[in-house]
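Hi, here's the filled form for the chain we discussed.

Project: internal
Contact: R.S.
Residues: 307
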Amino acid sequence: MKLKDSFIRSVIDVAGHENVKIDEPMKNHTSFKVGGPADVLVYPSNYEMVKDLINICKENKVDYFILGNGSNLIIRDGGIRGVVIKLGHLNKIVVDENLVSAQCGAKLYSVADQALKNSLSGLEFASGIPGSIGGATAMNAGAYDGEMAKVIESALAIDNEGNIRELNKGELEFGYRNSAILKYGYIVLETRMRLSNGEKAFIKERMDDLAEKRKSKQPLEYASAGSTFKRPEGYFAGKLIQDSGLKGTSVGDAEVSEKHSGFIINKGNATAKDVLDLIEVVKAKVYEKFKVELHTEVRIIGEDSLT
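And the returned structure, exactly as it came back:
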């Protein structure tokens, strides 16, 4: 739907003209580099502004979407109707002894780097993950035997009634790539992590080792959303895809990575439709060969292109 000028003015009044973009191409805001335009994209600069923007959208019956770093996301070619609230400006990181507090828009690798600088161990696994702390908390991001649930003590979030609440670890209900944040549709504002004291040299060595493993095994030179599929119980998605003979299979500029079959990559000019069509090819072939259903780990939103 076309947004009313009065509504857009209300958004600008809250956030400031410099923090509001109209018809913004979402391919500029996702790691996959695909996606059509958002009607309005806005950068809030504090927690109350996030609440105010959500209230304006609700009062005017306008859809809204909360965006972090866009690293685990595919936005369809038709883009997003309504308002995208991007939390990238909320990126403050505070270290108090072994407690690290990070706002939702802070890059996960930046939080890991701050932990290193303060000789704190526990986030080494996160040093190469490209997402934001808010998204990482919501999906319980993890790699190399580490995950956010192991270090998070509590999180500040907006609940469905618009209240800012502090949720302890139990209330966050962490599971594999899941949490109460996703389950109930909450919005992470800040995450508090308790880390362990360690030797800076050992922490750096571990980070460097994991970085080398990622570089050698993952197609980091191409745009992607990381691992495309969740790990099926009892299997590894990448091996199922490889054993189905799908390595290098492409639709347009979307391709099953030659380096790691669990990654679908954008070779340059892929559309969201290319990526989504390839995902369906992979799912169908794996099911045909192994009778295993693959489910996407990436989130897929937005509208199909009208052209």
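Let me know if anything looks off before we file it.
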